[in-house]
Design a protein that fits this description.
By secondary structure, the protein is an alpha/beta fold. It contains nine helices and ten strands. Helix 7 runs parallel beside helix 8.
C-alpha cells in the first residue's frame, strides 16, 4: 500500500510562535502536511478554528492530525474532534492517564466514531504505561476499531523494543507514525538525531509500513536544535525520500 503524505510535528518548531512564524518554517521545509500541537493552536477555543485552519489552507498545508492530547473525559474534549473534522484531519495522537476509567475510554471512542476520527495512542517510552507493548495489546483487545497506535519510533527504541516488530504486531491498529531517531549514551540517556543515522532502520521501517492497511499519517519529529531545527529537519526529509 502507498504511504501517506509526509508531514512534520509542529512541536519541532515550538520556539516559532505566533502562527505565521510556524507557517513560514513549514513552507521552508516544503512538506504537504503537519500535525499540530497545542503550542500552536487552542483546540478548545472554537472561535479560533476558522482563523487557524484558514491560515494553513492558504499556505497549502494540510493538517493531518493533532496532539498529543491527553483525554480525561471532560466535555471540552469534544471540541478537539470538531477541530479535526473542520480541518480535514484524520487522527488525534492520544494519551490516557494510567488511572483512566472504562467510562473515559468509552466516551472518547464514542466521539471518535461520531466525528469519524482515529485515535492513535502515542507510546511515550519505557517509563510510560502506554509505552509497553503488552499493555497496548491488552487495551486494544477490549477497544473498538477507532482506538489504535501512533507509533513513535524513537520512544519505542527507548523502551528496549523494535519498531519493526511493533509494525508487525500492531499492523491492523497502526494509524500513525512519528518518525524519530535517538542516540543513546552508555547510561541510557537519549538525544535526538537525524532520522536513520544512528538507531532507526529507516528503509526497513518504511517498507514494513506499506503493509499497514489503516496507516493515516506519517510524521517526522525532530526535537533538537530548538532555535533552528530547519536544517536538520531538511536532512530528515532527504533521508526519508532516499529510503
Amino acid at each position: 500500500m502507498p504511504l501517506p503524505p509526509l508531514g512534520v510535528q509542529s512541536w519541532c518548531f515550538r520556539e516559532f510562535v505566533p502562527l505565521d512564524a510556524l507557517i513560514a518554517q513549514l513552507r521552508a521545509l516544503g512538506l504537504p502536511c503537519v500535525e499540530i500541537c497545542e503550542r500552536h493552536a487552542d483546540f478548545s477555543d472554537e472561535a479560533s478554528f476558522e482563523r487557524v485552519i484558514g491560515a494553513f489552507r492558504a499556505a497549502g498545508i494540510q493538517i493531518s492530525s493533532i496532539g498529543v492530547q491527553t483525554f480525561h473525559g471532560e466535555p471540552r474534549e469534544e471540541s478537539w474532534f470538531r477541530f479535526c473534522k473542520m480541518a480535514g484531519a484524520k487522527m488525534i495522537s492520544a494519551n490516557f492517564e494510567v488511572a483512566v476509567s472504562p467510562e473515559v475510554l468509552r466516551k472518547t471512542q464514542d466521539l471518535a466514531r461520531k466525528y469519524d476520527i482515529l485515535l492513535g495512542i502515542h507510546n511515550h517510552g519505557g517509563y510510560h504505561w502506554l509505552g509497553n507493548a503488552g499493555m497496548l495489546e491488552h487495551l486494544f483487545r477490549s477497544a473498538g476499531d477507532r482506538l489504535g497506535l501512533c507509533l513513535d519510533t524513537a520512544w519505542c527504541l527507548q523502551a528496549g523494543e523494535d519498531p519493526l516488530k511493533w509494525v508487525d504486531r500492531f499492523r491492523d491498529r497502526l494509524f500513525g507514525v512519528h518518525l524519530k531517531d535517538f542516540r543513546f549514551s552508555p547510561q541510557g540517556q537519549w538525544e535526538d538525531v537525524v532520522l536513520g543515522t544512528v538507531s532507526l532502520k529507516l528503509p526497513e521501517l518504511l517498507r514494513a509500513l506499506q503493509t499497514a492497511p489503516r496507516l493515516a499519517t506519517l510524521t517526522i519529529e525532530y526535537e533538537g536544535d530548538v532555535a533552528n531545527p530547519l536544517p536538520k529537519l531538511k536532512e530528515c526529509v532527504e533521508r526519508v525520500r532516499a529510503a
